[in-house]
Each structure stands twice: as C-alpha cells, then as structure tokens.
From TrEMBL:
This is Uncharacterized protein. It comes from Candida maltosa (strain Xu316) (Yeast). It comes from the Eukaryota.
C-alpha cells in the first residue's frame, strides 16, 4: 500500500500532514488556507499507553476515511508501526476521544484500509461515513475486520492475498477479499461480505480452482458483474487469466468454476548459441462499448508492434486480435513547455508501463512517457479499436483522471488537460517540484509537491469557464498555490 505522510481528504476540504520532528499532525482547511485541527500525536498516545519520552513514533500511513457523496470527511487513521498501533481521530468534534487499535508486537500492523460506507443508508451508530476498517498484520499473515461501533474483532481472515475488493455499481453493499488458509497445500478462498453499515456479514466463501499469487491483479468489471484474476508475473513467457461471475458457478466439490480460463504462452522465443527470451509483459484492462457491452483487453508489445486481444464478456471468448505498428505516428510532443504536432520518435527498448480505461477509451502508456489512445468501436456487431492519437510528455506519466468527461494527465512534474477533439494536451499546472501526492475531484485537482525547501499544495480549478480560457491560451496557469505548512495560529486539540 502506498505510504504517505501527507493525505488529502476524500471530500477535498482538508490536507493532513504529519511532522515527525515534533510529532504534530496538522489538518489544513483548503478552503481558507488555515489550520483546522492540530494534534500532538505523542501526547495522545501517552494518554493511552505507557511509552518513554525518548521513543520516536514511526508513522507509516495516514489514511482518510471513505465517504458518501456530498459528505464531509471527519475521520483519519494513523498507523504507528513501531508501537503496533492504529489511532483513529474524529475531527468532527474537538472533544471526541480517539480510537486505539493495538496489536501485539508479534502480530504488528503493516497497513489498514477503510471499508467504504454503504450508500443511501442512514447512519445509525455513533459515527458518520466509514465505520469499519481492516487491519493487516505484519507480513500480511492476517486481516482483522473492526467496527468503530463495536469493541471486538468482527472477523479474522488468515493469509490475505488481495486487499479490499469493492464491487462497483452495488452501492458499496458488497466487498470481497481473497485469502489462503492455515491448511498446508490447500486451495485459496474467495470471501464475499455484505456491508450493513456498522458491521459486515459473511454471505459466501468458495474455494478457487487453483493457487493465487500476491502478484495477481484482481479487479471487478465496471458493472460489477465479472471478477477478473490476471497474472503475468508467475509465467516466464505469458499470462494466466481467470474470470468469474458475481458469486461464481460452484460445482459439487464447492469449488468455484471460472467462466473464462486462459493461459497464454508468448511464442517469441529464440534459441541460437544460447537461450534468449523475449518475455514481454502483459496488461489487462476493462472496456465498455457504446451499447454497454463489457470487454476485457490484454495488451503486449512484440518488438515494435502492439498486440491487443479483445475478449467479449457476452460471448465469453476472444472476438478479435488487433496489431498496431506504433512507430512513425504523428502526435503531440512536449517541447519548451508547450505541445507541437510532429512525428513521435520512440526509443529502441519499449515496454508497456501502465494502461488506463474509461468507457470506450483505452490508453496505453509506454516507457512512462508515451500515451497511446484508442477508441473501442461497435458497428453492426463488429468490434474494432481505432487509433485516436499519441502524446509524448517530458516527464514520467503517473496517472490519468477522468472527471465529467474531462481527461487529466498527471506526471511527476506537471498536470495537463486533454482536448476531447484532437487529443491535444494543455499544461494547466507546473508543480515547481516533484508531485508527491494528488487527488482528482469533479471540479478540481489537488496536488502536493516537494521542493528542496518545503512541501506545497496547489488547487487546480476545472470549471468550464476556466477550461475554455485555458484551451485558447496554453500559457495561462490556473494554479492557486498556497503554502499551508507555515506556522500559523493552531486550533489545539
């Protein structure tokens, strides 16, 4: 799990930052650039457990709660690894007592996750939004499910393989996790839980047909109908893909049966004086056609040719294999803080580093700096991928966000808005340092960046009027850079 000492709230109103020198956790209000809450974390912990004043706090994770739409974040969790302690602070009320979850030194705490609150459900306990969380012990030997409204562990899941898997389009009512058992040479289990708000109920556990490695990517389709297991790390030359439906087709031995089971071997192997392997990596993505039919794609590079396999979930089989020569394309190249249209010159060694998907849009990132855009077309029951364009950025691409049909590209130095007409990016923020952390919202992007002197945060507005001005003039910067970490009057808690 990604470790941050700076965390942006899910509501977009707050930024929390932990200072390890004075053990102060500051929560900054983004709206007025003032400190909303300030906590002396060491004093809070000493009020609960006995620790020597000289003992440092090894904070390894700050994590805001998951929230319902249009809600305000009120809780943040802090993992102190050397004390095997998770502290949950309730920021909604100044006098609210913190919650402590302590593990033995043998178990320890590696990380934790909030279980998102069930949508469209009234709060019945003492807390709003997230009221359950999962604590992973050291080496992920177990996952313990806690409720903030209960005083005991709800479940203990041994040897978890996956993290929390949320089923989309089901109002956060279902979540899952994959784990091994304590039995030797036993098949792993897929656990499905029903989220009732303050507690979760185990509704189904089923055996998988084969072992699952920690490198497996486990992801629901956008509709929450299909669950895909994908792994290209354990096979030297290929990949393994298993796809199940929502609750799985279970045989008489209580084993779940995959609807699709594909093991592909890369045949680009040469044997001359010795043995040489091509061994290209594979990337799996989900796409949804304009008719709401779902597809999974598997992409890989063979020399300088991109091969994309399209699997239809309606037909449960591969419907097309498309090959693209990715050399010699005309695209947008970043030069001197602006983009010009020219031929894209690719380096000699190429690899797929990331893929992104949004509806019919399919993005393949190569060598972290070349973003290829394809469109899924469905015409007369025929499926095809159409090349839309390619972008070459000057720094490594970190992520792509899709908000209100807007595409935002984030590199480790800049933020870009991409035109939906010609796939041309426009610089909307220079980070003035390395982008350390970011979060995208419907109307803004918040970035946290590091410089040699300090850590700053910026708000990038994405409203329609400013976006139009920006597209007309790429020199307009929309940053509202605010240094929120200078000493100010603090609200002590």
């Amino acid at each position: 799990m990604k470790v941050n000492h700076t965390a942006i709230s899910e509501c977009g109103n707050y930024i929390a930052k932990y200072n390890s020198q004075d053990h102060i956790l500051e929560v900054n209000n983004i709206l007025n650039s003032e400190i909303f809450r300030s906590y002396n974390l060491k004093s809070i912990i000493q009020s609960h457990i006995q620790i020597k004043p000289s003992v440092p706090l090894s904070v390894t994770q700050l994590q805001w709660e998951s929230i319902r739409p249009n809600s305000v974040s009120t809780k943040i969790g802090i993992v102190i690894t050397n004390l095997s302690l998770l502290v949950v602070l309730n920021l909604g009320e100044e006098a609210s007592q913190p919650i402590f979850i302590k593990q033995s030194q043998q178990d320890g705490i590696e990380s934790f996750e909030w279980i998102p609150p069930a949508l469209h459900e009234k709060d019945t306990g003492a807390y709003q939004n997230s009221r359950q969380l999962i604590v992973y012990t050291k080496l992920r030997l177990s996952a313990k499910v806690y409720s903030l409204d209960c005083t005991h562990v709800l479940f203990t899941i041994f040897k978890p393989i996956s993290s929390l898997i949320i089923c989309p389009e089901k109002n956060n009512k279902y979540w899952s996790i994959v784990a091994n058992t304590l039995k030797y040479n036993s098949l792993p289990r897929l656990y499905h839980f029903y989220n009732e708000g303050s507690v979760s109920v185990l509704i189904l556990q089923i055996k998988l047909p084969q072992s699952v490695t920690t490198s497996s990517e486990i992801e629901w389709s956008p509709s929450g109908t299909w669950l895909r297991f994908f792994d290209d790390k354990e096979l030297v030359l290929g990949y393994n893909m298993l796809i199940y439906n929502l609750f799985g087709a279970v045989n008489e031995n209580n084993n779940i049966e995959p609807l699709i089971d594909v093991e592909s071997i890369d045949d680009d192997v040469t044997n001359t004086d010795g043995i040489s392997f091509h061994g290209s990596s594979f990337e799996a993505s989900w796409l949804t056609s304009s008719l709401n039919e779902e597809f999974t794609t598997i992409a890989n590079l063979q020399n300088r040719e991109l091969e994309i396999q399209i699997v239809s979930m309606n037909l449960l089989r591969t419907v097309k294999i498309i090959k693209f020569d990715i050399t010699g394309n005309q695209g947008w190249v970043e030069t001197n803080n602006r983009f010009v249209s020219k031929k894209i010159d690719l380096p000699e060694n190429l690899e797929i580093t990331k893929t992104f998907h949004h509806g019919v849009n399919y993005y393949i990132c190569i060598n972290n700096r070349y973003l290829f855009h394809y469109i899924l077309e469905s015409i007369d029951d025929s499926i095809n991928l159409k090349f839309k364009g390619v972008i070459q950025t000057s720094s490594a691409i970190v992520d792509c966000c899709f908000k209100n049909d807007q595409q935002i590209i984030i590199t480790n130095e800049r933020v870009y808005h991409v035109s939906s007409e010609d796939f041309k990016p426009n610089i909307i923020s220079n980070a003035y340092g390395t982008i350390k952390y970011f979060k995208c919202f419907d109307d803004k992007v918040i970035i946290v960046n590091d410089t040699n002197q300090r850590t700053n945060w910026s708000i990038i507005n994405l409203n329609i009027s400013k976006k139009r001005r920006l597209i007309e003039n790429t020199s307009i910067l929309m940053d509202e850079v605010t240094d929120t970490f200078e000493p100010r009057k603090r609200s002590k808690t």
